[in-house]
Amino acid sequence: MSRNPAPGQVGSQGDEHARAWCAAPDGLLVTVRATPRGGRDALDGVVTLADGREALKLRVSVAAEDGKANAALAKLLAKAAGIPPSRVELVSGATARLKTFRLAGDAAELSARLEQAVAG
Questions:
Q1: Backbone φ and ψ of 59, nearest 5°
Q2: What is the pLDDT of residue 120?
Q3: Please, how many CA atoms are within 13 Å of residue 64, restricted to the half-sphere of its CB?
C-alpha cells in the first residue's frame, strides 16, 4: 500500500514547509502573507499564522493600491518558482493581507523550487 502525502503536503514526507503550499490539479496553491511597502521585494521565509497554518512571508516595496502590490507579489513568486509571471494567478485575497496564488506547472517541480527559495 502506497502512502499518499497528508492534505496540504506535496511530495515526500520530509517537506518542511509543505503546508504553505499544496498540490492542485494544474500546479500549486500557495498561501502568502503579504507586506506591501516592505522596503524591498523579498521572500522572508515561512510564517506560522495564528490558526496554525503556514504561509510564505513576502514583502514588496510598492503600496497596496490599484493592484500594484498583487502584481509585484505574483512577479516575486514567479521568480522564486522559476516560472514566467504569466503562470501565476491570484486566486483569493485581492484586498487582504493573506492571499492564495495558483502557480501553473508541475507541482513537484514547483514545490522543490519553492523549498530552495525558502532555504535561501
A1: -125, 145
A2: 78
A3: 14
